[in-house]
Amino acid sequence: MKGVREFLENQNPVKPLVMSFHGSTGTGKTYVSSMLVRYLFQGGLQSPYVHQFSPMVHFPHAEQIEQYKESLKRWIQGNLTNCGRSAFLFDETDKMHPGLIDVIIPFLGPSWVVYGTNYRKAIFIFISNAGGEQINEMTLDLWRARKDREEISLQDLELAISKAVFENPQSGFWKSGIINEHLIDFVVPFLPLKHHHVKQCVVSELVQQGLEVRPDVVQEVADSIPYFPEEEKIFSSTGCKTVASRISFFF
Question: Looking at residue 195, what DSSP letter applies?
Fold first, then answer.
């Protein structure tokens, strides 16, 4: 991504890089974020400078939200003091308790420099299924209007994502200062995958498992996945999420 490259090449960025990934399950959000982290940090997701948060694991109880806020703030501040070029990945932000994420606002803006550390070199990635249904519907509508997946621009989807994610009372971004203060640099929609994308996932998974890449197996695994809409069967209903588990049925 051009924006990521420009941020990394800038020795004195104006603010941290903040990205928000949106799309249905299995469309590549986690894959892309982990690929980016592997490129930036030795050890990838295992690097001591990469920090992952899941609402179900780290913030499960709504009644403890104030405690979570304090812990999250201390954790980010401590780790950014240790290394200004740190990455923070927030998975399933659509399941976060509203208001919790706002505690990190001071770290996302243009003026957060503390203890001689330039926090503006940090990277924050929010990963969410929110907006996935709307992205799928818009992609299908555009396909029916003879606009192929590869021709779709962010402008085609931006309004739908905004309404589904940032104006949704059930979303972690509901009435968030992160949105009101325009602290997200890039909203990245992940479009539903077509049959040939799923086949690429199958090939990749076979290689990863050390199995022979047989064209018949690749085709059968890809064909076994449900597609929508019911009649045309254009896009995978589960992306590549179930590819790994399905392969064992064909060996």
Answer: H
Spatial distance between the Cα atoms of 22 and 9, rounded to a whole number of angstroms: 26
Number of CB atoms found within 10 A of residue 22's CB: 26
Q: Which two tokens stand for residue 202?
A: 């199958």
The DSSP-derived string for 47-109 is: STTEEEE-HHHHS--GGGHHHHHHHHHHHHHHHHHH-SS-EEEETTGGGSPTTSGGGGHHHHS
Contacts of 4 (CB under 8 A, 6+ apart): 17, 36
Question: What pLDDT, on a 0 to 100 scale, did the predictor assign at position 192?
Answer: 97
**Stretches in the chain below the pLDDT threshold 50:** none
Strands 235-236 and 227-228: antiparallel
Residue 19 near residue 185, CB atoms below 8 Å? yes
10-55 pLDDT, tens digit each:
988 989 999 999 999 999 999 999 999 999 999 999 999 999 999 9
pLDDT at 113: 56
The pLDDT value recorded for residue 110 is 81
Nearest to 50 by CA among 127, 124, 126, 129: 124
Where are the alpha helices (H) located in 1-64, listed in sequence order?
A: 2-9, 29-40, 55-58
Q: Give the model's pLDDT for residue 219.
A: 97
Instruction: Note the pLDDT of residue 240.
Output: 97
Which three-class secondary structure state does DSSP give residue 158? helix
Please name every residue paired with 229 in a beta bridge, in sequence order, or none if there are none.
Answer: none
Both tokens of 249, joined, read 């049925």
Alpha-carbon span 61 to 65, nearest angstrom = 7
Cα–Cα distance list, 251 to 21, 48, 203, 207 (Å): 34, 38, 14, 14
